[in-house]
């Protein structure tokens, strides 16, 4: 009889911590599909429209001033302490360290540098695009506004678009981008959207950003995530060069170079087993379970139940075994 050892919760945890024997082949790299290109173009058009509405001092700027005069941090002063802590989820340093630690563990476990390199590429792209927009437009924040009703553009500021909001979109959205299953990608996308939405509204509550800054920050972060598939060939090339450099360094030191990982073979589709046309299979007995010992087995009606003390049937000289056919009973005199 086959028995299996029951794994404890600690055993399952350590099994999950073990590294995979080879790079997972089921992780799909996002491609720049037509749908993604169309979404990127629409997001870029919205980004330019937001900038134009602020430049011409439209209704969006008037809405910014109305929200600023409302002073949410005074209207809801009881949650000020919570918002001060929550807005840290959009700061570059703490969020990058937390996400890099998680992606570093994934890189070690999966024998690949793609998670860490993708995070680095996204943060580099974010710093270039958002930083250039901040310095180029030079908008002042609500606390440093000089003229009521103006757009405060070109005055040496650096808040348009919101860096906290864009960083929250990219840093937490990269987890959804690197998810290995569609279900995990959907859940992580929803979580990153909620976190980035909360970070943006927290900056408006604290009065450090205009409402239009936050809207443009969300758009800027989404543009970075949508453009990441264009960086995938560069990421793959950088990963190969890093591994080649590691192998050369090991060979120079005399350390054994590990064998390259074998490619995952393409699964072969098995043909269905041909069923014979005759009636031989109908008369064939069903296959015995795998856990039974090999050899012929008798039917249950032909076996006598046996207990440790022996058979439960009392010995009887006239008892006939089942299945042997009727037999004449001896006639006894009365």
| Annotation, overall tally of beta strands | 2
Q: What number is the mean pLDDT?
A: 79
Query: How many helices?
Result: 12
Low-confidence stretches: 262-273, 287-295, 297-301
* Share of helix, binned: 40-55%
SSE pattern, N- to C-terminal: HHHHHHHHHHHHEE
Numbering strands along the chain, what is their spatial order in the largest sheet?
1-2
Taken as a percent bin, the fraction of beta residues is: under 5%
What general form does the structure show? globular
C-alpha end-to-end distance:
53 Å
Structural class by secondary-structure content: mainly alpha
Oligomer state equals single chain
Most strands sheet = 2 strands, antiparallel
Task: Provide structural commentary.
This protein has twelve helices and two strands. With 334 residues, the chain is mainly alpha-helical. Strands 1-2 form a two-stranded antiparallel sheet. A hairpin with a 2-residue loop joins strand 1 (306-307) and strand 2 (310-311). It is globular. Mean pLDDT is 79; it is low at 262-273, 287-295 and 297-301.
């Amino acid at each position: 009889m086959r028995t299996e050892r029951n794994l404890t919760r600690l055993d399952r945890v350590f099994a999950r911590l073990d590294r995979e024997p080879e790079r997972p082949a089921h992780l799909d790299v996002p491609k720049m599909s037509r749908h993604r290109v169309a979404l990127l173009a629409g997001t870029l058009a919205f980004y330019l429209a937001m900038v134009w509405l602020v430049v011409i001092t439209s209704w969006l700027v008037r809405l910014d001033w109305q929200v600023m005069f409302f002073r949410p941090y005074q209207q809801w002063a009881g949650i000020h302490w919570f918002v001060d802590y929550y807005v840290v989820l959009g700061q570059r340093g703490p969020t990058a360290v937390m996400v890099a630690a998680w992606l570093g563990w994934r890189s070690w476990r999966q024998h690949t540098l793609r998670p860490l390199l993708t995070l680095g590429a996204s943060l580099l792209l974010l710093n270039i695009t958002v930083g250039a927009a901040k310095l180029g437009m030079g908008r002042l924040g609500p606390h440093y506004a000089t003229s009521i009703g103006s757009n405060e553009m070109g005055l040496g500021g650096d808040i348009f678009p919101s860096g906290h909001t864009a960083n929250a979109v990219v840093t937490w959205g990269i987890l959804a981008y690197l998810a290995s299953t569609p279900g995990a990608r959907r859940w992580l996308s929803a979580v990153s959207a909620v976190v980035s939405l909360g970070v943006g509204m927290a900056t408006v509550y604290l009065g450090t950003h205009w409402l239009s800054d936050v809207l443009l920050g969300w758009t800027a972060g989404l543009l970075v995530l949508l453009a990441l598939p264009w960086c995938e060939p560069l990421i793959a090339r950088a990963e190969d060069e890093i591994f080649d450099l590691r192998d050369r360094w090991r060979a120079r030191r005399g350390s054994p170079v590990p064998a390259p990982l074998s490619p995952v073979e393409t699964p072969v589709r098995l043909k269905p087993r041909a069923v014979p046309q005759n009636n031989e299979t109908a008369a064939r007995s069903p296959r015995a379970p795998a856990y039974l010992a090999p050899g012929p087995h008798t039917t249950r009606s032909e076996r006598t139940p046996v207990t440790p003390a022996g058979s439960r049937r009392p010995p009887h000289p006239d008892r006939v075994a089942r299945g042997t056919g009727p037999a004449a009973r001896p006639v006894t005199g009365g």
